[in-house]
Amino acid sequence: MKLNLDDEQKKLFKRTAALAKSYKANRPEIDMTFQVEQGGGIEEDWSGGECIVQTDSGRKDINYDPFYNFIMEFIEDNRDTFLQPFDDQSENSWGEILCEFNFETKTLSFIHNVSYYESSYSEEDGQAKPETARKLIEQKNASEDCQGEVIRMNFDGGGDSGYIESEAENELGDVVSPTGLMEDYAYEVLERHYGGWENNEGGHGTIILNFSVQNRVGYTIEMNMNGEEQYSDNYDFEIKLDY
């Protein structure tokens, strides 16, 4: 990848380097961060358009928006290249593009930090205690809206809240309405086996109540647990500047 600078742009790089030196940067580098949103939007860093140098007293922003905006425009103009690592992982990935301007070697280098969700599947089985099973069977038999030997209830959680859907299916694929006790019991076994299933990225899946064995109620939880994953790498190019 190349970056051909006109005369005004060359002056921009020279002014930026001089400004960094005036801050007594102890490394010949200016660091910038750009946010990549889900769906491919490229935005300023959450802390604003900062051009950071490292000094003896810590990290300092040289407060030079024209340079930050120029690099952001360059990334936008070459968005297919810069977003490729994000697209390769997932259409819903997000993260950061980091740019380093080395004003001693006159080079631009870039790093991508890609974040994405990954789901892991697991199952848990069990049996309701006899007294709980008796009550579940009584309520099911008394309900006209919840007939069947197998009741499948879907659930979804995330962002510190979660819910079990108000409609379920029986073994024939008919839509049924779980009883209040069924929902309470479903929440109970979810918490027992997957405590915190609703937190952070959360989990989703199905709770299956099986009434096919007389006087017994078995359950199976089919869980897809979401987790946030990250990886970082350099882009396979470095831009040598001519100014």
Summarize the structure.
This protein is α+β, with helices and mostly antiparallel strands and 243 residues long.
Write the layout of secondary structure elements.
Layout: H1 7-22, E1 29-36, E2 42-44, E3 52-55, E4 58-61, H2 65-77, H3 79-89, E5 94-102, E6 107-127, H4 130-142, E7 150-158, E8 161-164, E9 168-170, E10 175-176, H5 180-193, E11 203-210, E12 218-240
Antiparallel strand pairs: 1-2, 1-5, 3-4, 5-6, 6-12, 7-8, 7-9, 7-11, 9-10, 11-12
Describe this structure in words.
The chain is α+β, with helices and mostly antiparallel strands and 243 residues long. It has 2 domains: 7-117 and 229-240, no CATH class; 129-216, no CATH class. The protein contains 5 helices and 12 strands. It has helices at 7-22, 65-77, 79-89, 130-142, 180-193, and strands at residues 29-36, 42-44, 52-55, 58-61, 94-102, 107-127, 150-158, 161-164, 168-170, 175-176, 203-210, 218-240. A hairpin with a 4-residue loop joins β9 (168-170) and β10. The protein is rod-shaped and about 85 Å long. The model has no long low-confidence stretch (mean pLDDT 95).
Based on Cα principal axes, name the global outline.
rod-shaped
Category by helix and strand content: alpha+beta
CA gyration radius, whole angstroms:
28 Å
| Sheet of most strands | 10 strands, antiparallel
Helix fraction by DSSP (H/I, runs of at least 4)? 25-40%
Tally of alpha and pi helices: 5
Number of strands: 12
How much strand?
A: 35-45%
Tell me the number of structural domains.
2
Distance between the termini: 17 Å
Give me the strand/helix succession. Answer: HEEEEHHEEHEEEEHEE
Mean pLDDT, all residues = 95
- Extract low-pLDDT stretches: none
